[in-house]
Amino acid sequence: MQDPPRYQGLRKRLTEQLRSKGISNPLVLHAIGTVPRHLFVDTALREHAYEDKALPLMADQTISQPYTVAFQTELLDIHPGLKVLEIGTGSGYQTAILCAMGAEVYSVELERALYERAKSILNALGYYPQLRWGDGRFGWPTYAPFDRILLTAGTEEVPEPLFQQLKEGGILVAPVGASSYQTMMRYQKVGDKVSAEKKGHFRFVPLRKWELS
Ligand code: SAH
Question: Which residues contact 119 (CB under 8 A, 6 or more apart)?
Answer without folding.
Answer: 92, 131
